[in-house]
Amino acid sequence: MVAGAQDNTDARYDRARIATLIQTDQPDDPLAILRPEVLRRTAKSFLRGFPGLVSYAVKANPAPDILNILVQSGVTVFDVASVPEMTAVRAVCPTARLHYHNPVRSMSEIAQAKALGVASWSVDRMSELDKLGELPAGTEVAVRLSLKRGGGAYDFGSKFGAAPDIATELLRTVAERGLTPALTFHPGTQCTDPTSWADYIAAAAQVAQRAGVRLASLNVGGGFPSLPRGGAALRQSLFDTIGAAVQTHFPDQPPQLWCEPGRAMVAEATWLLLRIKARGDGVLTLNDGLYGALGEWRDMPVPSRLIALDTQGQPVVGTSQPFTIFGPTCDSLDRVPDPWRLPAAIAEGDYILVTGAGAYSLALVTPFNGYGTRQLVNLESLPEHAGQCRLAG
Length: 393
Ligand SMILES: *Cc1c(COP(=O)(O)O)cnc(C)c1O
Hints:
Layout: H1 3-25, E1 31-34, H2 36-49, E2 53-54, E3 56-57, H3 64-73, E4 77-80, H4 83-92, E5 97-100, H5 107-115, E6 120-123, H6 126-131, E7 140-144, H7 164-176, E8 180-184, H8 194-211, E9 217-219, H9 231-249, E10 256-259, H10 263-266, E11 270-280, E12 283-286, E13 306-309, E14 320-326, E15 340-343, E16 351-354, E17 375-378
Parallel strand pairs: 1-17, 2-10, 3-4, 4-5, 5-6, 6-7, 7-8, 8-9, 9-10, 12-14
Antiparallel strand pairs: 1-11, 11-12, 11-16, 13-16, 14-15
The chain binds pyridoxal-5'-phosphate.
């Protein structure tokens, strides 16, 4: 079956299981619903489709269930930004290879990371390279390059990354110190523009040439988009663009290619099931909001991902209207910036299913106002329900 058709079948199957869950449990707290089959398939699509090696950026979703499934699917390298992320990874995979690609660290973090045997470090300024001190000969140090160009939903180059001149100097110094020279970049999250990667790969080749260094590896970052439809096909075309750009710009001795997706690996694999606590005139108060799993909606709303369900788990039908959306806390900032268009008939006690919500959702939940406990429900661990049989027809 082609990937898109398999996605649709999985989605129908999972929707039926969620309807049964609603009928039996009437869940009142927000639920994160893990779709393991989708996560396995996405991991495979990266491992098979990307023309290099694959690591997972833990910050997108560090839930142990997610890390476990990724490890079982063959992902054993992790991009980590902090010591707690390192220990979370090692707890599920003691032999995991760690890429510490947060380029700014305290002395204490460096010492702990060395003790944990980090395999690759990224740097974007000389002072942070110096701060790393003695590293075992041959340790990989990846210089983080930034081109100050757009392409993603927001700009990752505004915080980290060295401009090409500084990157050249850093790369040369890394090689002189007997470390393994690498380059890394991040085109910006939810990036749909293939020229972002192609431009970075061209710039990386120039930096390496000007530094007079043969790159051992090139890490093209995360940034791969997650889309409600056609995501896998777009991703494969981005992989093909990346592979072709590396052949063009590194014709002899191409570096080992790496990617480190966060969002695209996990977004489709988790849905959020939220409930309406109260309905006012054109206003809905939900059981989750900006201090919870909807934190990213402030910057990156995805209105096409909302499905209204009644208390039997069936779609609410009829004409739609805009609703102002408030979260459950007592803070008036706990409000989704743009109204949601939902069926006018939606009522208190009904549900809203937010699909494709596995990235930067649970990871952002705060305990503010006593909210913030989160249950991750694994669809495969639910008992076999009659709901599944309805799909056969
Ligand atoms: C956040 C991050 C990623 C993952 O980015 P996505 O847009 O979620 O794919 C990868 N690498 C680094 C260094 C990051 O900080």
